[in-house]
Specification:
Structural class: alpha+beta
InterPro entries: DUF1737
Low-confidence stretches: none
Protein name: DUF1737 domain-containing protein
Shape: elongated
Order of helices and strands: EHEEE
Organism: Streptomyces achromogenes
Length: 61
């Protein structure tokens, strides 16, 4: 597949609390064919650890 499914963009950033639901969202994107772009960004908002993970659709060779 040369483009992401369902009209999704080729570059995505997922954000949210560092919990099982966030990990599941990243896992689902990887399952669709996205690849991680670098490592995650992590911060603390005073209550929770917040994570941002960039994902990219692989380029055609």
């Amino acid at each position: 597949m040369s483009t992401p499914p369902d009209g999704l963009p080729v570059y995505r950033v997922l954000t949210g609390p560092d919990d099982a639901a966030f990990c599941q969202r990243v896992s689902e994107a990887i399952g669709l064919g996205y690849e991680l772009h670098e490592g995650p960004a992590v911060t603390f908002n005073g209550e929770n650890v917040i994570v941002a993970q960039a994902l990219v659709w692989p380029a055609l060779p």
